[in-house]
Target: TerC/Alx family metal homeostasis membrane protein
Amino acid sequence: MVATTPAVGSPALWTTSIAVLVGLLVLDFVLTRRPHAVSLREAVGWSMFYLTLPVVFGLFLWGAYGSEQALEFYTGFVVEKSLSVDNLFVFIMLLAAFAVPAELAQRVLLFGIVGALVLRGVLIALGAVLLQAGTWAFLVFGAVLFLTAARILREELGGATRERDVSKMRSVRLLRLLIPVTDEYRGTRLWVRADGRCALTPLTVVVVAVLATDVVFAVDSVPAVYGVTEDPYLVFATNAFALLGLRALYFVLQSALSQLVYLNHGLVLILALIGVKLMLHWAHGLWPTVPEIPTLMSLAVIVLILGVVTLASAIARRRAIRHFPSRSRP
Model:
């Protein structure tokens, strides 16, 4: 039950977690200091590492705080990971639109992940303040999730694609109006001196574009996790664990992501489910006879939705190859 579990985040746990998070980010910056194209073997290794961390952390929560807190963490992590996979589609589009060299891709993703962590930290704090102000905050979070689900569904039914003209993004246009941008990349440098004045490199522009999309995803994802747990620490932990492994997961799944044709349909169902869970939780506080959706049931349904999405996408891909074999070739 969302409201009855005691808070997990002690000052010591918060301090330790933030220190570990900063340490991992510094390690990532050190590893990307010398740009190189990431091999599949390297990406798989880091992906396994970042998938093992939340499993071990959930077992720690189970032993230290109880099964309910651990289940809330695992459920929140699955929700965040499924939403972060959708982030990867946008990252792929941005990196392709800016023709980012393979050896610089991981640096761009790292900037994007750091920006996402900062933005979600701010929204997590704001969410905690809203929850302390009253149970009406659950209605706000639920409305955000329903609106997001409706937007995604409208785009899918309207036949909208994930492609967009990056040059029309407000943040990119404003940046190019204010400061000149060089025509080519200069390694990992964000700005250079050109003709006696400061000029940005295309790397800065793509980083700004990634950070701009981080804002949208943060607004969607934080209310989703607050639909699983009210504990700000668990919301922070699920976001951190989901985002940390995003860079490595990008290099593992960049070719396979395009085959998950029904991912957005699954996200619509997941967001709607959590929205209903929030509404029921709010109503239960006023009318105790109104039932709530248990965390374990939420986790089971979310995993089932993701499984069906993956299977349906694989079947659709197989049928497309059978009927249009030439289109399946790169």
